[in-house]
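User: Hello, can you help with two protein structures?

Assistant: Certainly.
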Amino acid sequence: MADDTLFDWDERGEMSPWVIEEPESVDARRERVGLPPLAKSLRERQERSSRKGEGAPSPYRERQAEIRAWASRAGWLEPGTIARGGTRGGGSVD
């Protein structure tokens, strides 16, 4: 099944979910639309990236700035918002 959660490389060079609003209810929302728990999707995406030999682009901060700029232009983020929503590694990333 296709999973429409966006994943990207984090500051530790690991594949992780991108912006998640209201992370405490993400699995309930995913279940309602027939998606597996986020942890399972993440594990599968990390395994697929590993098999393909994919790695984090560098430099990380420049890549994140490009992503935030694109997301703002696309209307996904308001200018100046935190790109990761505070769901990765226990704190926000900017």
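That covers the first. Now for the second protein you mentioned:
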Amino acid sequence: MRLAHDAGEKVRLAPPAAGALRRHAIAVRSLPMLACAMEVTVYILRCSDGSYYTGLTKQEIEARVWEHNARTYDGYTAKRLPVELVFTETYDRIVDAIARERQIKGWCAARRRH
């Protein structure tokens, strides 16, 4: 967050709430890692039961879909195989990909189909 003010003007900030400094320090340390440039793919899979799974990955999308179908991880798709890739979007910043994934996960299944 950036504060805008006139040159020479003193800016007073209210003291932080109890525990806020600790949370802020953790958030500041993690920001450079989250903001660094990398290719991240947001994807939607159609599962065998007709439901949809939304995720994101930094690896090649084909490899990630293969991991889902190979049951590499025990999760939502493991009991709904096989899965089919139906949508991808690629982002340069992970924070943008996370925001998009959250947006899509907030949609109902009918909207994800379109």
